[in-house]
Amino acid sequence: MEDAVVVRDLVVDRGRRRVLQSISCTVPRGTVTGLLGPSGSGKTTLMRAVVGVQTVTSGTVTVLGRPAGAAELRRRVGYLTQAPSVYADLTVRENARYFAVLHGRGHAEADRAVADVGLADAAGQLVGTLSGGQRSRASLACALVGDPELVILDEPTVGQDPVLRADLWARFHEMAAAGTTLLVSSHVMDEAARCDRLLLVREGRLIADDTPDAVRAATGVDDLEQAFLRLIRANEAGREPAGRERA
Ligand SMILES: Nc1ncnc2c1ncn2[C@@H]1O[C@H](COP(=O)(O)OP(=O)(O)OP(=O)(O)O)[C@@H](O)[C@H]1O
């Protein structure tokens, strides 16, 4: 099956800086692919390019077989930005129902999306009165309510407690098992182990595109944070990055 996302030789300049330096990678359908890297490494910029809202300098981004940003992709791609994009003066339920209508879905789907992010008890609460972590989950519910084929989630678990984080990751894997493709960014390396595949970026360059197990095998260490350190050092030493083969 074709990949959900194909990025080829992507270069992006923001301001006067080159923030993505010729990135090529793929996101296979029906997987949870993690986009990992330190703050400022270019994760959000890459996600914006996949959503089609980022001006690119050169290269191509193909999403579900179409150029990124194509009008017909709007309903097929869900995007959770880092800043919650929900209406503060509506309740959680009203927000979810509003976004559900935009995607041709009903109340039942909206209520399910709210429950899926652990907000059933707060469904009647105004978003403006929620905690930061709750607000970001309300935003997540709105990104998922249309049941998009490709879901791009920019740091969806920041500020969530460990139980909720585990629940959210379980939900992501359920969605992937049902055929949805998820690209999920995080700068927390312990989340890398929860992904089917990993894209590791640093300073605008891709230094790994592989499964967690393949990254471990290529570097000879079990701990993914240590594995990434080795990849970074190997990369800085100018050697060929390890672990580029598909498992
Ligand atoms: N609007 C902008 N104009 C100029 N430079 C920008 C702009 N937005 C981001 N950048 C720069 O682009 C680089 C990549 O930023 P990006 O937001 O993609 O990183 P990130 O990996 O998502 O970081 P974080 O984990 O902190 O969200 C950073 O050096 C950042 O300062």
TrEMBL record:
Task: State any single GO MF term.
Answer: ATP binding
Q: Which InterPro entries match?
A: AAA+_ATPase, ABC_transporter-like_ATP-bd, ABC_transporter-like_CS, P-loop_NTPase
What are the residue boundaries of the ABC transporter domain, all occurrences included? 5-228
Instruction: Establish whether keyword Nucleotide-binding is in the entry.
Output: yes
Domain of life according to the entry: Bacteria
CDD domains hit by this protein: ABC_DR_subfamily_A (cd03230)
- Coiled coil, from the record: none
**PANTHER family this protein is in?**
ABC TRANSPORTER G FAMILY MEMBER 20 ISOFORM X1, ATP-BINDING CASSETTE, SUB-FAMILY H, MEMBER 1
- Name the record gives this protein: ABC transporter ATP-binding protein
Q: Which organism is it from?
A: Micromonospora sicca
